What does this fold into?
Amino acid sequence: MITADQIRAARALKNWSQTDLAERTGLAVPTIANIELGKQIPGQGTLQKIIETFETAGIEFIGERGVQVKQQTTMVFQGREGLKRFYDDIYESIRENKEDVFVGNADERDFLKNLDPESIKKHIERMESLKVHYKILICENDYLFPASEFAEYRWISKEEFSSIPFYVYADKMAIILWLDEPVVFLINDKKATAVYREKFIQQWKKAEKPPKSEKAIIGVTPETQDKIQKEIKKKGRK
It folds into this structure.
């Protein structure tokens, strides 16, 4: 539910007249006027039209009184510096609610190739300080587990695995393209995030826990850096 005051405030933020709102919602101008004057109690369908019209225009309603311009719903992080800012966003977004972070279609070699050791160390330390748990889906028979300090890995089949990783955290989801330099597309949207979260959960339930093996490369300590670099070169990612 929203109030007449919120509707007036939302119109003011968009600099819309009652006629503008009526045209966008398909409602009559007198209907809009009567709702704002408190002379008419709108039905749920009418209110939903008004809410959706404003949300599409970049306005959101907060509680019983608040109205504000939506924060940017999409962002693009480009290059290695952009990848670092993306990790900063993960940290800032989950430091309050401390929800789990889900990562699908991960090949850690791509991340390690595009992040310097200092940035990797910083990310690990911040995640450990928040006591946040990562769940990461990787391709079967992949024994590279560099984030094992704060993450649990599971295998999915080669048929299910994709080369485009996705992240789900807070109310955000992101996909990463590994081009000449990485490009991260971030969407701040509850509905989109819910879809990807459910997709991940279903994959996670079917996924297999990797067996213990001497092949495993765990953590990103200096002792394992040479092994990881050899793994990257072996994959042809120099």
